[in-house]
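Example with several molecule types.
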Amino acid sequence: MTFSHLLTRAVHINRAGSRSAFTSSKLDTANPNWLRVGLAFGTSAFLWGLLFKQHSTDVHEYKVRNDLQ
Amino acid sequence: MVYSLVRPVLGFLRGDEGKSLAPPGIVNRNSVWLSGMGWVSAMLQNAINHRPPLKSGVHRQVLLATIGWFIGYHITKYENYTYARLDRDMNEYIKLHPERFEPKEKKTFAEIVEPFHPVR
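Resulting structure tokens for the full complex:
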């Protein structure tokens, strides 16, 4: 068998571990992946909360250690 | 609860002595810059994939901007601590070696300048 003949046969056998460009689908922009959207917004909210909490803790530590409180 | 788990991770930035330093404000230079970089990279990703840059993937823009702001705050904290430490070490050295930092005698210009003899 020729080399190109072997390659064309490979298109039909789509094993996990390699993707053929001929079988991937186009991005579907009309239906968003709501899980990913929710995770992104949730992570953002978590990080903002963490930031404000850390900041208030730092301010409190500063006041306590310098006897301002 | 999650906060108490995360705090030891972020605590390595300053150490115990660093805690008596004033913390940076929530709005600080590094935060603004890094969150801007995150936002621009989200918009760049939109543009590369032929999507409207501002209107699409708002969750991505918000997430990357937030991550940038968060990292910027901690970088500013570390920056303040580093400069405070260097200043303190420098001042201690100056105190320990006063002979190297004697104030120079100051002369006014009138004492240095030679008399002026115009040659016209």
